[in-house]
Structure formats: C-alpha cells, structure tokens
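Fold this: GGDEF domain-containing protein
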Amino acid sequence: MREMRFDPASLVAFMPMSLMYDDAGVIRYVAPTLAKLRDPACLIGAQIADVFSVRDNGRGSGAGPIPLGTKLYLNFLTGISTPLKGMAAEIPGTGLNLLNLSFGISIVDAVADYRLTSGDFAHTDLAIEMLYLVEAKSAVLEETKQLNARLQGAKVAAEEQAYTDTLTGLKNRRAMDHVMERMLRSSVPFAIMHLDLDYFKSVNDTLGHAAGDTVLQRVAKILLEETRGDDMVARVGGDEFILIFNKFMEHDGLMRTAERIITRLEEPIPYQDELCRISGSVGVTTTEFYETPNADVMIHDADLALYSSKYEGRAQATMFDPKVHKGHVSDHVNDPVEHRVRG
C-alpha cells in the first residue's frame, strides 16, 4: 500500500473555514476563508484557547485539549463575536489536528459582517444553497416592500383624489362632511361660512366654461389666502363654497373676514382679452347657536343666512340669527323665487 502524504493546501477546496493546530494547542495553519475573519498573522502561533471560547455539546470545554470527533460550539474572544460550529479530528502521523468550522444559522450575519461571497465556501457546502435562498428571499421581500409602498402611495393618492375637487384643488363635499363629523364628535367649536358667487352664470354664458373655470380657480386661491392652516375650504357645488373656521367664533371677526373675501372677489379677473366680473354672497353660523350642533342643521342655517344676503342685494355677508331665520325655514326651502335669485 502506497504511503499517503498529507498536504494542507489540498484541503482548502473542501474546508476553506478550517485551521490546524498541534497537540500543544498552537495554531499552525489557517485556511483562506477563516483568514478573512481574522488576520492569519494574529492566529498562527497563538493558542486556540486565546482565540476561541469552546464548548463541547453544551458541556463546556474546560482547560484541557479540544475534544475530538464531537460537535463543538465556538466564539471569537475578540472582535465580532461570531458564533461558529466545528469538529476537530487528528491527522495521523503528522502531530497535527484539524478543526473544521462553519457558521451554522449565523451565516447571513457573517456574510454581511465579513463581506464573504460564494467563492469563500466549498462548492458542496449547503451554506451556498442557503445563501441563494436568503438572497432570493431578500429580493422577494424588497420587491414586496416596494410594491407595498407603491400600493400605499396609490391608496393615499386615491383617498386624496376622493376628497379633492379636481378643478380647484380645494376639498370637496365628501371631505367637508368628514371634517365636520370629526369636529362635532370632538366638540370642537367652529364657524361655517357658506359662499355663493354672484354673476358667475353670466361669465359662463358670455365667455364660456373655460372662463368660468379660470374664475373658480382664482376664487379658490383667494379663499385659501383668507383662511388659516387649520381651517378648511371646500367647493360643494358649481359656484358654492363652504369655509370651516376652526375655533373661530367671534362674530365681528368672521364678518370682517367675509367682507374682505367679497371685496377681493369683486376685483376683475383677466381671461384672454376679457375681464370677468363677479362678487359673492355669504351666510355665516357658528356652533354656539346650538345646544347640540348638527352638521346638516348648521349648513342649512348658513344657507338661510346666505339667502338673506342675496335678497338684500348680493355682495354682502349675513350672520345667522335664530330669531330672524328660524321662522322662515319652510318659506326659504320651498320658495322657487329664492333659487332663481342665486347665481
């Protein structure tokens, strides 16, 4: 039988995470992948006990030599404390022992910590398959994450669109209902200002709907400029707007705001070579008029005050007065003349 010669380099392809140590526990050889974890110059010549903590199947290593032929659990004593698994075996006739190591379930962290690649593992190592699976899973998770982000963005955009008037960018009636419901549920005091444009129909009739759209966009800009960040402006009809003033109840202040809005609306609005001329009539009410404020009732009462502004000659604001307006609810609702006055 031919004598077998031992060449440490021949084991590299099969055990790139191995090392060899002598019977005194001194490390004599470090394979390439293990050399990426720790500098070989610091390992070769060092005692294994100074490099690793070693446990034998959970029973502890003690101070004696590393047990051979059994599963070992190791950790580096310095630097990144990467958990390792291994097994040691004697290399007959050499005075050396072989300690082959692996990462076990810590392989993913180890690959990231030490920037390892598939080339650092034996081709037959199942760790390669695990890495491919982890990479595939990571790719799927990242794609899923991006898909969820896109879906969430689309959902937010759809919800925003559902609550927005596309022409003016203001909130719509649905958004107004939602805001009022929330404020009433939270007992937040607020005022409602119902604005109806005067002479808007004549702009549409004489200059066309494109001119009307220009006017509505200009009106929206004015209303946003005349309200605060925590107020809300909604377009609730063709030329109707409702403004909700959060915690703003002072009557004189509300009327001054309404008058300022009307004054700005009366400034001519350029459209091509023409000037569009409109104004606005306003009705105002606040939650202080009601024992238990109700959205539909408040909007109706602001509408009654708006009708009064129309009847008084337009281009003015009226504060709702329960003593004046409540006695005329049925008249205001059913009288077709009032509806003809608006616009």
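The longest helix spans residues 126-162. The chain has 13 helices and 13 strands.
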